[in-house]
Design brief:
This protein is an alpha+beta fold. The chain folds into 2 domains: 51 residues; 86 residues, SH3 type barrels, CATH 2.30.30.170. Helix content is 39%, strand content 31%. Strands 1, 2, 5, 6, 7 and 8 form a 6-stranded antiparallel beta sheet that branches. A two-stranded antiparallel ribbon has the order 3-4. The longest helix is centred in the N-terminal third of the chain and has 50 residues. It is elongated and about 100 Å long. It starts with a helix and ends with a helix.
């Protein structure tokens, strides 16, 4: 009887060892995978930061005061291609143009969206995000 109990105890201990060994092996694999993903993301982030070191912004005289956006354009926090996104304009929208700037040889407009709230209602759009730019409503009538 003692022999059976000892045998069962050894069997239970062996099963527990195998179970926890597999758990530990799985945890090591997960750690290595996450470690590699973290390293790749950190390298990608660092490469983005270094590409933004030489930014030249030249503010221009406003040539237009209004514009109609295209559908699906992104309102940016700053006039940068890979900058943070404030809002997504899902439909064509007439916006007020507050400022015009040339950033790295590309024209950007600082715009105000006609929203009922001041929350995320101002930001930067590229010139290519507009279907129509005009100075006044009279200009639209003439077109």
């Amino acid at each position: 009887m003692k022999l059976i109990i000892i045998f069962l105890l050894i069997l239970v201990i062996a099963c527990m060892y195998l179970y926890f060994d597999r758990k530990l092996s799985f945890s090591r694999q997960q750690y290595l995978l996450l470690s590699n993903q973290h390293k790749a993301l950190r390298e990608k982030y660092n490469s983005l930061n270094t590409s933004l070191t030489n930014i030249s912004i030249r503010y221009l005289n406003n040539t237009t005061s209004n514009g109609v956006t295209l559908e699906g354009v992104l309102l940016m926090l700053s006039p940068l291609e890979k900058g943070p996104i404030i809002n997504k304009i899902t439909q064509k929208l007439q916006v007020g143009i507050l400022e015009e700037a040339e950033v790295n040889n590309q024209i950007w407009y600082f715009v105000s969206l006609p929203l009922n709230t001041d929350f995320n209602s101002k930001g930067w759009l590229r010139k290519s995000d507009f279907s129509l730019l005009f100075s006044s409503s009279q200009d639209v009538m003439n077109r």
